[in-house]
Amino acid sequence: MNPLTLSHVLAAVLALSVSGAGIAGPREDQLVAYAAAAKAANPAFAGFSAARGKTLHTQSFGLGKPDTPACTSCHGNDPRGPGRTPAGKTVEAMALSVTPARYVDPAKVEKWFKRNCNEVLGRECSAQEKGDWLAFMVGQ
Amino acid sequence: MNLPHNFPLRPFALGLVTVAFSAILFGRAQAGGSHYFPPVADPLVKEECGSCHLAFAPSMLPASSWQRMMANLKDHFGDDASVEPAVAASITDYLVNNAGDTGGRRYGDKLLRGVSGANAPLRITELPKWVREHRKVPDWEWKHKEVRTRANCTACHVDAAKGYYDE
To answer: What is the CATH number of the domain that holds A48?
Structure first.
């Protein structure tokens, strides 16, 4: 194992122990993967921020579809409350504390980031944005 | 009328009323039968087709419609609903096998009357029978904030998710 890889693993383990997650599951793995991608894209990356995630979630961008200027257009203003799609379907709360089954299927998380970032931002989200957003919801 | 002196008129009349009432109920139940479209039973289809809107019953459209729809999920009524190719193939199989002119014919028959599979209509809400059945719904109801779109069946048909579309 080269020193760089070792330091990455150590950083990940440290991050997990600090975040209080007992054992690493798919949710933590995905955050670690997003962190690696964010670091690769920007060497100055120094970890995810729930505050930035909150801004991303609540800010009105208006860059995608007219119906959905913000994440909250469908998810609602309260992350602990349910949302509603334009077709009237209820969306369970995004906050992990309210919907504990969320974020355990990395493919599903990626699928929705891809669709929803395009609908709100008119582009895909960066790894840092995804990690920030997840960090916000996991802490809610 | 020459009824016997001791004919039990009252119970007889009551019996007649009961039979007539039952007949009306039975007739209604039968009519309701044409408003039943078995809901999606496949968990994958339920998940993938039921996140943004009600997972519409496959018997509401002909097989050709489902094929056409599944071939262009990138632009699904203006939204990008694309899924992995293997997932799309599996969903298409289910929809095609249970469509209103294949496995789900006995449920979709009336709704699809006069609809040609060759046209492969994409919107259930534009089928002639659908339009006729909803002609009395006023414009303000469609615009109501709890409705907003004709695709929002459950707003009025409370048991739509279970397959029942009675009034």
So the answer is: 1.10.760.10
Q: Which residues of A116-126 are buried (b: 16+ CB within 10 A; e: fewer)?
A: bbbbbbeeebe
The reply to whether B114 falls in a domain is yes
Contact B101, B117 (CB under 8 A): yes
Helix axes A26-41, A3-19, angle to 10 degrees: 130
Contacts of B154 in chain A (CB under 8 A): 88
Containing structural domain, residue B110: 43-162
Chain B CB contacts of A85 under 8 Å are: 51-53
Domain that holds residue A81: 3-138
CA distance B66 to chain A (A): 19
**pLDDT tens digits, residue range B65-110?**
999 999 999 999 988 899 999 999 999 999 999 999 999 999 999 9
Structurally, chain B folds into a number of domains equal to: 1
pLDDT in tens, A7-61: 555 455 445 444 444 567 999 999 999 999 999 999 999 999 999 999 999 999 9
Q: State ipTM.
A: 0.73
Q: For residue B48, is it within any domain? A: yes
Contacts of B79 in chain A (CB under 8 A): 65, 115, 119
How many domains is chain A built from? 1
Q: Which residue of B has its CA nearest to A91?
A: B51
Name the residue of chain A whose CA is nearest to B155's CA. A88
Q: Which of A111, A112, A116, A120 to mutate to test the interface with B (most CBs of B within 10 A)?
A: A111
Residue B59 lies in a domain: yes
